[in-house]
């Protein structure tokens, strides 16, 4: 692999794994795969990461933090969210690039302010940016809401392998205990999805990365499952 290209590819992958406080390339690859279960959202998320990394380099932000995905993982979540909820077009991309730019700036500001206090900024930039987008688009008629997140199977059929889609449908209809099904769906919801296979793939990636993190996920989900009853 080209030595000049390798660091950029690593930064892209780190943006995916950083969501789970990791720089594990296997976990990053599985997260990347899952985001493309909704192809439009996956492409939007990847574009957001590339643009966020470009902005980070251009503005001279900390190179180590750029490489580890600290400035771009919130942009990834924002890109997936916008790609899930909105139809793509000229107005969409204008708002998209402005929103990603705002997310990167907000990430840099919060990282600078909170790191001095020993605090992480987590997904605050993503949450604030998406809230602003939702408020703005209420009056922005040039952008239409999308049904991709509802009919995501049709999206996969349109561009994917029929056998893969049939396997996804098989996993959706498999008879699992409700608590396990809820666990997998809850994991997939981190990326604006609601399917079991995505949750299984993410679970495998997290387990291979850290048994402690995987155990905490199970304990947390079990606790809330019991409380909800």
Give a verbal description of the structure.
Helix content is 71%, strand content 0%. It is mainly alpha-helical and 229 residues long. The chain has one domain: Ammonium transporter AmtB like domains (Ammonium transporter fold).
Features:
mainly alpha; Ammonium transporter fold; globular; 12 helices; 229 residues
- Residue share in β-strands: under 5%
CATH class: Mainly Alpha
SS-based structural class? Answer: mainly alpha
Low-confidence stretches: none
Domain count, please report it.
1
- Any idea what the CATH superfamily is called? Ammonium transporter AmtB like domains
Query: How many helix segments?
Result: 12
Helical residue percent band: over 70%
The radius of gyration over CA amounts to 18 Å
CATH topology title:
Ammonium transporter fold
- Amino-to-carboxy terminus distance: 53 Å
Global geometry? globular
Largest sheet: none
Explain the layout of strands and helices.
Blueprint: H1 6-17, H2 25-35, H3 39-58, H4 63-67, H5 73-85, H6 90-115, H7 124-137, H8 152-159, H9 162-172, H10 178-188, H11 196-209, H12 211-228
Concise synopsis of the structure shown:
With 229 residues, the protein is mostly helical.
């Amino acid at each position: 692999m080209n030595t000049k290209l390798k660091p950029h590819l690593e930064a892209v992958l780190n943006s995916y794994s950083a969501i789970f406080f990791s720089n594990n390339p296997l976990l990053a690859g599985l997260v990347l795969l899952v985001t493309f279960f909704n192809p439009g959202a996956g492409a939007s998320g990847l574009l957001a990461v590339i643009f966020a990394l470009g902005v980070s380099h251009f503005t001279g932000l900390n190179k180590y933090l750029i490489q580890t995905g600290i400035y771009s993982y919130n942009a990834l979540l924002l890109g997936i969210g916008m790609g899930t909820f909105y139809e793509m077009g000229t107005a969409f991309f204008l708002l998209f690039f402005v929103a990603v730019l705002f997310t990167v700036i907000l990430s840099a500001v919060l990282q600078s302010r909170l790191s001095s206090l020993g605090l992480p900024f987590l997904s605050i930039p993503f949450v604030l940016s998406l809230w602003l987008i939702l408020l703005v688009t209420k009056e922005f008629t040039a952008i239409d809401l999308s049904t991709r997140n509802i009919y995501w199977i049709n999206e996969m059929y349109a561009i994917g392998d029929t056998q893969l889609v049939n396997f996804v449908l098989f996993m959706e209809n498999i008879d699992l205990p409700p608590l396990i099904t809820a666990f997998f769906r809850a994991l997939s919801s981190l990326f604006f999805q609601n399917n079991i296979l995505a949750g299984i793939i993410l679970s495998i990636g997290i387990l291979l990365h850290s048994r402690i993190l995987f155990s905490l996920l199970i304990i947390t989900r079990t606790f809330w499952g019991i409380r909800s009853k």
